[in-house]
Sequence to fold (203 residues):
Amino acid sequence: MESKTDLRIIRTRKSIRDAFIQLVREKGFDAMTIHDITAKAMINRGTFYLHYQDKYDLLERLTDEVFQDVIGNINPSTHLVGGKMHPKNVETSIESVFEAISAHADFFEAMLGSNGSLEFSRNMLSMIRTKFDSEFTKAGLPEEQMHLPKDLVITFISSACHGMMTWWLQNGMIHTPAYMAQSIVKIMMNGPARSFGVEVMEE
Fold:
């Protein structure tokens, strides 16, 4: 009996999730109502409220579920040993991040699309930044040995990561996760100027 109940809950939540994503694409998050969600999911309002408080609670919980997979793969502290970074390990980690995004592509594409939520994009950037901050603290890198302020570097890396993820999704994931990982590591190693083929003058 318990397994049947669990299966029913899983099916109901999936119906709500699918309806939510479809409505974001059709109407946008701000315009959708609980009635829209329940009608699309073919459930009654009472069933919806058994699972979620409102559409904001639904969005928050879907976001948390998705980002557990994505953010969990951002772990630069494991690739920094004795102050040295291992590019191949970083590449593997980044590939895992893009694979996790791909697994939830329908949700991300809806939320970052033309009818998506600007607040979601801001929260996404904030979560990425918080994770990087935590990881660099965990790595134990002495701030006095850094060439630039820690906050400045973390802000740059987080914004670049967020931008690459968003670009990839908005362009139909035209490259494989492996290609994205390889490209990002090359940019990290060479810097933007050399990645453009521009010679950097030594001063």
Notes: The first strand starts at residue 80 and ends at 81. Residues 82 and 115 are 46 Å apart (CA to CA). Strands lie at 80-81, 84-85.
